[in-house]
Amino acid sequence: MFYYNQVDYLIKASKGKAWKYAEVIPDVIIGFVPNNNIYCLAQTLSTYLSLFAAVEGKGAEVAFPGTEQSWVIKSNDSSQDVVAKFAIWASLHPEKTQGQRFNTADNAMPSSWSVKWPIICEYFGLKGTPPPAGGSGPQPGKYIEEHLDQWKSLEKEKGLQTGRVGNERSFGGFQYFIMTMFNVDRQLDMKKVHDTWGKDKIETDTKGAWWVAFDRFRKAKIIP
Fold it and tell me: Mind giving me the DSSP string for the chain?
């Protein structure tokens, strides 16, 4: 975490007060946003893969847009539901959480894009494959830009919400940062949060995080 000034402020401001604080520390948050957010990786990938399936056809292979190195690094996704539920739990149990910091993620077992990418692509009827040797698969933002007319047609054909691609809010840099530049292991130790959460702890898997988010984008008519 790099919000040191904010934490210092909370420590100082909470002294002698009735309210307390705790730090909930996720990795990449996987979830649904209704109003377009450049940091929402699930939105970027869901619009990209929906378009890819429409252009290339169901069953098409789609290469991972990162590198051979980022393909295998270990990390823990943090679905919005798990993060929210622990944040609520922590606020209701200050006797166990006040002044503490907790890694908050979906599962104690780390994963990698080599595991997650095929599952993510499966939702859209696609076959997720490793990056090509020495390179990367298509970059989502670039692919959408090159097929923007097809996306606009898809919006009209399926009655989709507009304004999710092709503008300053559909920034491709975050996806590149997360899926390519984050190329070192960064798995989280979940022992403290699970020990503190106890019998109420919640865990989920790739489908429970990503497919739930995609279902919500579909229900909101943001993707077909």
Answer: ---HHHHHHHHHHHTTSS----EEE-SSEE---SS--TT-HHHHHHHHHHHHHHHH-TT-EEE-SS-HHHHH--B--EEHHHHHHHHHHHHH-HHHHTT-EEE--S-SS-B-HHHHHHHHHHTTT-EEEPPPTTS----HHHHHHHTHHHHHHHHHHHT--SSSSSSTTS-SHHHHIIIII--S--PPP-HHHHHHHGGG-----HIIIIIHHHHHHHHTTS--
Measured distance CA(82)–CA(98) in Å, rounded: 19
Strand partners for 78: 29
- State pLDDT tens for residues 65-79: 999 999 999 999 999
Residue type, 22: A
Query: Residue 111, Cβ neighbours under 10 Å: how many?
Result: 19
The pLDDT tens digits for 156-187 are 999 999 988 877 766 668 889 999 998 999 99
Burial (CB count <10 Å: 0-12, 13-18, 19+), residue 184:
exposed
Q: Furthest-apart CA pair in the chain: how many Å?
A: 62
- Both structure tokens of 125: 């009827």
pLDDT of 200 above 80: yes
Q: Does domain 38-219 have CATH number 3.40.50.720?
A: yes
Residue 52 above 70 pLDDT? yes
Which residue, among 79, 75, 223, has the nearest Cα to 140 in the 3D structure? 223
